[in-house]
Design a protein that fits this description.
The protein is built from seven helices and eleven strands. The protein is α/β, with parallel strands linked by helices and about 220 residues long. The longest helix has 11 residues, at about 110-120. The chain is globular.
């Protein structure tokens, strides 16, 4: 099966060269200090590797796009694995830390991804998830240059969206599409994973939150 980002990895990496920078301090704070291997689940082109290493951990990257992994290789000498986030090729309790960033909108079943993340975490292990805000960032939202956002009644239409009139012609969503989870579905996916949530965050940077993050542990 062809990954959605295959054929677009170079364009994506160059187009969004600075896009991940504002989120790195928040990611580092959620991670805290640690050690040992950290699975970057849906690592893409490896934009978060430096922050993971800054936390004291080593990086193991996994992505479904071979093209994305090719770009990620320039950012790490560590293991990079081609695999499905919903069917991880790791034994139970393989990692002390798992991070998954900006994946909820790019996978078919975010709940399945969280279940797999919980499975490969060791008891007491840490999961950090950071991504699109279900309420204020999605296929139902129109952005305006003055910072206003219009939320359409399509908010409750979960699932894949591939073509909306307010999406930029040359933007990532016109090329990839976007999976939308309303807030209740997103939170219920977390609860169903069996993870214990420590806290939720709406990271700063936008007057109306653009991102939504949480930190959780696998029960000991």
């Amino acid at each position: 099966m062809r990954a959605r980002y295959d054929g677009l990895a170079e364009w994506y990496d160059e187009r969004f060269v600075d896009g991940s920078e504002p989120h790195q301090p928040g990611l580092l704070e959620l991670l805290g200090r640690g050690s040992g291997p950290c699975l970057d689940l849906g690592c893409g082109t490896g934009r978060n590797f430096e922050t993971i290493r800054a936390s004291g951990r080593t990086v193991v990257g996994l992505d479904f796009s071979i093209d994305q992994l090719g770009r990620a290789r320039a950012r790490t000498d560590g293991p990079l694995i081609h695999g499905d986030a919903a069917r991880l090729p790791f034994a139970d309790a393989s990692f002390g830390t798992v991070v998954t960033l900006w994946t909820s909108t790019d996978v078919d079943d975010f709940g399945a991804v969280l279940l797999e993340a919980a499975r490969v975490l060791r008891p007491g292990g840490l999961l950090v998830a950071y991504g699109v805000h279900p309420c204020f960032n999605g296929p139902h939202v129109v952005y305006h240059e003055d910072g206003r956002r219009i939320v359409h009644p399509t908010y409750r239409q979960s699932g894949w969206h591939t073509d909306l009139p307010w999406w930029a012609e040359d933007g990532i969503r016109r090329r990839i599409g976007m999976n939308h989870l309303p807030l209740a579905d997103y939170l219920n996916a977390i609860l169903s994973s069996g993870l214990t949530v420590e806290r939720f965050e709406e990271p700063a940077g936008h007057a109306i939150p653009h991102a939504f993050a949480f930190r959780a542990h696998r029960p000991s």
